[in-house]
Amino acid sequence: MTCLPSQPSPKRLGLVIDLDVCVGCHACVVNCKEWNTGGYGAALSDQHPYGADVSGAWLNRVHSYEVTPLDLLMGASAGGEVAAEVGPARLVHFPKSCLHCEDAPCVTVCPTGASYKRTEDGIVLVDEDKCIGCGLCAWACPYGAREMDLAAGVMKKCTLCIDRIYNESLEEEDRVPACVRTCPTNARHFGDFADPASNVSVMVAERGGVDLMPEQGTRPVNKYLPPRERKMLGATPLESVEGATGFFGWLDKMLDRY
Amino acid sequence: MHPARSIIVFTVLSGLGYGLAFVLGARLLNPTDVATHLAFVVALALISAGLLASTFHLRNPQRAWRALSQWRSSWLSREGVMAILTFVPLIWVGGATFFAQTATVQEFYPDGYPFWGSLLLQMGAAVTVLCTSMIYTQLRSVDAWHTWLTPACFLAFSLAGGLLLASIFAFLSHNPVASLLAGLAMAANLLAWALKCFWRLRMKSLSPTSTPESATQLGRLGKVRQFEPPHMTGNYLTNEMMFRVGRKHGNALFAIAVFFGAALPGVLLPLASMAVSYDSYGAGLILSVLALACHLVGVFTERWLFFAEARHAVSSFYGS
User: Fold this and answer.
1) What is the pLDDT of residue A2?
2) How many CA atoms lie within 13 A of A37 on its CB side?
3) Phi, psi of A38, deg, nearest 5
4) pTM value?
5) Which chain A residue has the Cα nearest residue B139?
6) Is the ipTM of this complex over 0.85?
7) DSSP A70
8) DSSP track, A87-140
């Protein structure tokens, strides 16, 4: 049924991605691919996997962005134009998978009912037996969370490892999504956002977790913790002595006079 | 967006077919003429060809029947349901005209057309084209499409094509209403292209709803630039949502579309309309067929550009 659930679900399961910690190792990408290929369900296919023109379906991908700090004051006075770039650029690694939105546009556009949002925990899934591969859900998703598996001809997306989180045959610590389990830097967290005392809710409150593309109106459940503000190594030129106190402050003032 | 041939063929042919069906439902053509019967067959053929073309876009078409189930939430499903429902009045009205001279039909429909059936046919055709256009309009992720101008353009092009086609059948049967139809076709065509120009002006002047800064929420730190894509080669998203060629030659292609779609028919159709007053239906037929060919070139080009020039929000994650 591709109508969204009429009431919010009692549990809102999702992920918190800590952009301050992610090192871009792609372990989550690989583990997700492996679990969804070697575990339960049909394999995530690759096309020309051993050739030059390799491509394939991945449910979780890590982008890398270079963020250059701007002098915001200068930018404002120059009418919003980029007047100067101040400070060294920062590299932020950005894992992105389905955000299991509250107002998921991919669910309502589906003509067959293959795309649905679970009423018990809010996970958005694809029923691969019903999917006709029209691709409209991928067009509707602004985040690019949905990809066509070209071999199977159906749309695939992050399942929040629904075949792991409720799986009694796994050890307790393994009952989290594959990407969360494998992250070596603890950049990914899984929990229930409907519970204000859960690990994810606490993290979001403390670090100011944000929605991606809030202007699209999708109300994503997954939250991203922004990189912390840091004083960058190259921000202060080597010749600067600002902040010198005591003897060296006095020495600086004396020598400036002469 | 990747302009899939099957989708372009589907929207153009079905739009044309439903446009013709709408005009036929206006009961302007003589129900006993062979050309009118041919018109109903052509409308049916165009709609069927369009719907068949749309199934080539599916990777699992054997389950396509399921696409009729989610009409409560999905415009694509609504379009499928309306397309099938509209076949009923189309066959009913068309069938009545085939037997218009028989006593049974004369008894029920003295002027050869079922009145309510014709009305249902018009409503069905219009609503189906509207549903088709809403599939694209509803997508907030594509700024260019998310405007009332999108369904306005689809409906206007469908009507213009339908009037043009109907005038051809009127010329074929030496029906003086061909003059009116050709004149209306010209007006509808100009309206359609005017709406299209407004649509394109809006698209060109849009500032994107989503940017790399809003997509990553890293705008608070500074200017965001893609350093490295998630994988070296392309993927389904870059192939499907980020199409390059259309934008490079977009302006030139649109100029070509306007020339063939608006300018040429703007000359041919008034001439065709005037041919009726000189009783030269042959000349009128040739002129209107030429106008149709030009209209098709224009519509196929603008439909291709509709997809090729549209920016999808996901490109914000890929640095553009």
Assistant:
1) 75
2) 15
3) -95, -15
4) 0.91
5) A140
6) yes
7) B
8) S--EEEEEEE-----TT-HHHHH-SSS-EEE-TTT--EEE-TTT-----HHHHH
